[in-house]
Amino acid sequence: MSEPLKDNNFSLETRNLSICYGEKQVVRQVNLSISSHQVTAVIGPSGCGKSTLLRTLNRMNDFIPNFSMEGEVLFQGKNLYEPSIDPGDIRQKIGMVFQRPNPFPKTIYKNVIWGPKIHGYKGNLQDLAEDALKRAALWDEVKDRLNDSALRLSGGQQQRLCIARAIAMNPEVILMDEPCSALDPGATARIEDLIQELRNNYTIVTVTHNMQQAARISDQTAFLYEGELVEYGATKKIFTQPEKKRTEDYITGRFG
Amino acid sequence: MKRTQRKRKERLFLWLCRGATFLAVGILFILLFHVVREGIQWLDLQFLDNFPSRKPERAGIKSALVGSVWLIGLTALISIPLSIASAIYLEEYAPRNKWMRILEINLANLAAMPSILYGLLGLAIFVRYFDLDRSLWSGALTLSLLVLPVIVIAAKGAIRSVPNSIREGAYALGARRWQVVFFQVLPGALPGIMTGVILALSRAMGETAPLIMVGALSYIAFLPEGPSDPFTALPVQIFNWAARPQEDFHGLAAGGIIVLLILLLTLNAGAVFIRHKLQRYK
């Protein structure tokens, strides 16, 4: 598999990105440059368009019938929405972890290898599964029951399994859509630790409504409000010296 | 006072519901009891191994039993792939517009159509137009038409009940649509589809009217050797016996009903078993 482009500062970029669901505009003129091998958090109140924005980055919005967009999404310099691009190819390189853990109703092992398998992975699937599960910090808990149903795992384990499933594809970017919102504090802490480690190998974009979480885990933070990108910069700066009044109001809990 | 009144209403409602349940089940049991009492004396291996005869003591249901098995097998072969494919198209591919809604309403209507109409259709199309004559093909194709909407509706429901999060998870791994449908949606929907298939085939197994329309004979003293042969089926044989004036033939009809019921129960038990196996990972 190809090496991530380390010399390229930006893995993903949106240019004047606007998104509509039917008549309703959800995202307005967003310009966002996401750095490679960093954790970028998108924060903002419910309904501000952060999930929508995230799902545009690997074309998961294609399935929504009245979805329409303007502008560009560049991945390694190429526009993801060019007609010649196959969204299936894109999603192999830009994986996604969802709000609720959604393991397939299959065994733990089959969950991990399903992606590589359908794409005709030539290597050793068992090694691949072990590696992915180790990277997702799940191996020790499941190594003796790889052939158990994934649905018997706890919520936190299921979510780590979903991360392992994404990792097994050897993606360059992993998008996470509020990956901890359905988990208890203990499981959340484990996922947060995991995200810290994954940063070394993957570019991570995570959406969260939990500001403390964004502050803890991310390098860059983007604050989205009513579909507009209010402020974007280093997490430390956003949380200590925000430039915009609205950002300050939000992170100090005056609304949201 | 108000409290006792409320309680009384509660009781009344409970007894109404309970009564309705017992009435329905009770009538079924009375029917079963009668059938078994009348038919049990005719049930023996000879009954299963003999061809129909004018003499009740020598009459059996061999040709009808074999005919029914042929018929249901062929019907399953024709209708299951067709209806699952239609259900997949309707649920996963078809655009959601006015025409599709009209199509779906009509599908539901088709499922509720009197079966004799399918018989007429089968007679016109398969027996006459395609010149399949009174063969197993004609019978099975007609029954397939009959069960198709039933299976399609059940399969559609089963496919719809596969959570969208599974599809999203698969797409997020770069899966193509057919891979998502084939490897994730279909296995997830299979238990539900199986239930629909079995219910529909059970219904087909008991159908008499359309088979009589397409010319299933009631007196057949040989076994079909292939799908182009003429045939008879259990319900047709039962109908024929029940229509005769002699007492003994009524007993034979009851015996035939018992065999048909046992066959249906076996089919349903098989379905439950398969369902259970498939649901291991749920």
What would you say this structure looks like, in words?
The complex is a heterodimer of chains A (256) and B (282). With 256 residues, chain A is an alpha/beta fold. Chain A has a single domain (10-251), classed as Rossmann fold. Chain A is built from ten helices and ten strands. The longest helix of chain A has 14 residues, at 185-198. Chain B has 282 residues and is an all-alpha fold. Chain B has two domains: 2-42; 46-281, MetI-like (MetI-like fold, Orthogonal Bundle), CATH 1.10.3720.10. In chain B, 76% of the residues lie in helices and 0% in strands. Chain B has eleven helices and no strands. Chain B has helices at 2-39, 45-49, 62-93, 98-111, 115-129, 136-160, 164-171, 177-206, 209-213, 234-242, 247-278. Chain B is globular, with a radius of gyration of 23 Å. Chain B starts with a helix and ends with a helix. The chains are: A alpha/beta (256), B mainly alpha (282). The A-B interface holds A 58, 60, 63, 65, 88-92, 95-96, 98, 100, 102-107, 114-115, 118-119, 149-151, 162, 165-166, 169 and B 96, 163, 165-166, 168-176, 179, 183-184, 187-188, 280-282.
Topology:
The complex is a heterodimer of chains A (about 260) and B (about 280).
Chain A: E1 10-21, E2 24-35, E3 39-43, H1 50-56, E4 67-75, E5 78-79, H2 87-93, E6 94-97, H3 108-118, H4 125-135, H5 139-142, H6 155-167, E7 173-177, H7 185-198, E8 203-207, H8 211-217, E9 220-225, E10 228-234, H9 235-240, H10 245-251
Parallel strand pairs in A: 3-8, 3-9, 6-7, 7-8
Antiparallel strand pairs in A: 1-2, 1-4, 4-5, 9-10
Chain B: H1 2-39, H2 45-49, H3 62-93, H4 98-111, H5 115-129, H6 136-160, H7 164-171, H8 177-206, H9 209-213, H10 234-242, H11 247-278
Helix pairs in contact in B: 1-11, 3-6, 3-8, 3-10, 4-6, 5-6, 6-8, 7-8, 8-11, 10-11
